[in-house]
Amino acid sequence: MTRQSDDAAPALHPDTLLVHAGRKVDSETGAVTLPIHPSTTFERDPDGGYSRGHVYTRQSNPNRAQLEQCLAALEGGDDACAFASGSAATMAVLQLLCPGDHVVLTEDCYYGTRHQLETLFTQWGLTFTRVDTTDVDAVAAAIEPASRLLWIESPSNPLLRISDLEALAQLAREHDLITACDNTVATPVLQNPLHHGIDLVVHSTTKFLGGHSDLLGGAVIQRADFPHAPALRNIQVAGGAVPAAFDCWLLLRSISSLGVRVRAQAASARTLAQRLQGCAAVEAVFHPMLAEQPHHERAQYYLPGGCGLLSFTLNGGEARARQIAAATRVFTCATSLGSVESLIEHRASIEGAGTPTPNNLLRLSVGLEDVEDLWRDLEQTLRS
Ligand SMILES: *Cc1c(COP(=O)(O)O)cnc(C)c1O
Fold this sequence. Notes:
This protein has 384 residues and is an alpha/beta fold. The chain has two domains: 6-255, Aspartate Aminotransferase, domain 2; 259-383, Aspartate Aminotransferase, domain 1, CATH 3.90.1150. The protein is built from 14 helices and twelve strands. The strands form two sheets. The chain has a seven-stranded mixed beta sheet with strand order 1-7-6-5-4-2-3, sandwiched between helices. Strands 8-9-12-11-10 form a five-stranded mixed beta sheet. α7 links the parallel β5 (178-182) and β6. α2 (62-75) packs parallel to α9. The longest helix has 19 residues, at 258-276. The termini are far apart. The relative contact order is 0.12. Residues 85-87, 110, 112, 157, 182, 184-185, 204, 206-207, 216, 218, 337 line the site of pyridoxal-5'-phosphate.
């Protein structure tokens, strides 16, 4: 029995889609949990055809197809392409461009995106301009005749600035630019960029979607009628940076709990952000739900649920920040974000030269621990 057919999808609540989109009970065995299909190759029909839909696992695999169907449903997209990492997904979008094309991108976007452009794509003839995408006029001023892609990360990372997706999508349409939004930090539970007129959503599924620090993955989800959909699928299939069947299966298993995880993480992050504001050791706190933040009204519109990340800067500079990151007990000092365990990180030292991240900034990825345990850990460390 099919638990959810495609034409029923729009009627279902997103929380229901998290559990059911792309899944079905196995018709042969009745297994409620999806089987894993590690097979790299699939049998041809007597006439040489492939009526059962799969040929070779780089082209398509049942577990990947289920994952892609789920991701498309969660973001309200037409289709999705799953990749072996978030970086491979980013790269696929950039590979849609041609030598001589120009990219406008969020100034404080994920540092790996900037690193890809600098170290891999300048030699392919792409140029780019980093700009504060919270300022639509600044974006308009950065658009050149050769501009072809507007890459937005909102909330940005680690400063958690909120861009006006609808105004940017409108501006991009006027200039015939593709828009892509890295939605890793918000997740499809808290923000759906396609609903605001964006063409492509990119995720590092390594983060909140995977949620347990045990898989690497990425995805690009496209709006209906995205003209470069066949080119994107070709980059995935011909390029071959595809996830293994087991990782697709594990990711889909994790997505079932995404809603409860992310909402709990966002609620705890907001509590910690508010309390950190009152600490003498803290210089400034960055979280979209703080009333004192710039673009707070915009955050209420795009991200009313908040998000599970926050950052803060410390009085006492870089040395003090590094000391605190090393001294917490419940927060683990490690990179990455979105998992069930809370992480604390000195960002500037991992992002390297050219980062706009202040060197006295710590980023917190808030997990599922008791919020009072997390707060005591922070407070005691800040006082020590
Ligand atoms: C981690 C991350 C990426 C890159 O994803 P990988 O899975 O590590 O390749 C891209 N964007 C954001 C916002 C991220 O946090």
